[in-house]
Amino acid sequence: MIAFLRGRLLDKQPNLLIVDVQGVGYQVRVPLSTYYDIGDHGVDIALHIYTHVREEAFHLYGFLTKIEQQLFEQLITVSGIGPKLAVAVLSGIGPFELVNAVQHSDIARLTGIPGVGRKTAERMILELKDRLAHLGVAQAGESLTVAPGERLRDDLLSALQNLGYHQPLAERAVDAMLSSSSERSFEDGLKAVLRELMR
């Protein structure tokens, strides 16, 4: 399973990117929020990935932030919502606004999202209200803006887990590295953490 991609943005269209990772082009479906924030052709990008496998298809869904990925994964557990509609939901409403609408049973706001009818909105509220509270973003007024250091931490943890390191060990190593200096690129940070883990 692919959980994270870092590479060069080869092409971008609304809801679809092609990421060149060491000469291999990955087609990644994304919400519009990621499309608009990702940058221009040729830039280096990093995406949290959800791999969706079915008998007839193998699709990658990418997100700039961990919270968008978590919301996507929660949305596709709702009866009647598949990956395509989940991307449409995240394209039509911001993460905090989505959590807020579900928590406050705001049918009108949810049905304002293209592709979401009343029954789908009601199922989202019924099935997600308790689960979204556990994401830690449901408190009123809490911002979902991700600081650069937090994004770097998430990216490093994801990379280390993909390399087989257990989460508690990875978290200790990353936090120790970031406490000494948060002004690092992903590559420099990963090298520093790996050096520490190999001691």
Strand order of the largest sheet: 1-2-3-5-4
Q: Element order, helices and strands? A: EEEHEEHHHHHHHH
The level of helicity is 40-55%
Would you identify the CATH architecture of the largest domain? Answer: Orthogonal Bundle
Number of helices: 9
| Arithmetic mean pLDDT | 83
Question: Can you count the beta strands?
Answer: 5
| Biggest sheet overview | 5 strands, mixed, barrel
The proportion of strand residues reads 15-25%
| CATH C-level label of the largest domain | Mainly Alpha
Output the CATH topology of the largest domain: DNA polymerase, domain 1
Shape type: globular
Specify Rg, calculated over alpha carbons.
Answer: 18 Å
Number of domains: 3
Termini gap: 29 Å
Could you name the CATH homologous superfamily of the largest domain?
Answer: 5' to 3' exonuclease, C-terminal subdomain
Describe this structure in words.
The chain folds into three domains: about 60 residues, OB fold (Dihydrolipoamide Acetyltransferase, E2P); about 70 residues, DNA polymerase, domain 1 (Orthogonal Bundle), CATH 1.10.150.20; about 50 residues, Helicase, Ruva Protein, domain 3 (Orthogonal Bundle), CATH 1.10.8. The two termini are about 30 Å apart. The chain is globular and about 55 Å long. The longest helix is centred in the middle third of the chain and has 16 residues. Helix 2 packs across helix 3 and helix 7 runs antiparallel to helix 8. The protein contains nine helices and five strands, in the order βββαββαααααααα. Strands 1-2-3-5-4 form a five-stranded mixed β-barrel. The chain has about 200 residues and is α+β, with helices and mostly antiparallel strands.
